[in-house]
Description:
Blueprint: E1 3-9, H1 15-29, E2 36-42, H2 54-62, E3 84-87, H3 90-99, H4 103-106, E4 109-111, H5 133-162
Parallel strand pairs: 1-2, 1-3, 3-4
Organism: Streptomyces lacrimifluminis
Keywords: Hydrolase, Protein phosphatase
Pfam family, one: LMWPc
Amino acid sequence: MPYRVCFVCTGNICRSPMAESVFRARVEEAGLAGLVEVDSAGTGGWHEGDAADPRTVSVLEAAGYDGDHAARQFQAAWFTRLDLVVALDAGHLKALRRLAPTPQDAEKVRLLRSYDPVADADLDVPDPYYGGTDGFEECLEMVEAASVGLLIAVQAEVEGRAA
């Protein structure tokens, strides 16, 4: 069974689809495509079925990532099939842990930037939605930096399952 990771932000049109796209590329580069499944969702359903924000798509494609996406809302029932739920900010972390059906499920929720060894004390990836393209570019930089450490952690979990 693959190791399953889901990135979660507010509406699933900016930060979480960006993290999903970047991390999927890291997983493929590491040769783990068949062993790790990557997706994303939002804490709310306002944008369900919508594509990613055009600024997200633009920044992703300019950096060589896939921008194809359809938004959806995270469901508590998903905890049973997920191994790791990656929140993009502290508000998402709290909301997801409250949504978790069990304490074990709540332990599956982590902040993305907690995987970045050089991140400052503020581990939130700021929401770029109400700003310009520069906010989306900053978001991409944070996501890319944290994805390296996240890949190391996920790779260790996958190898541990195989042992």
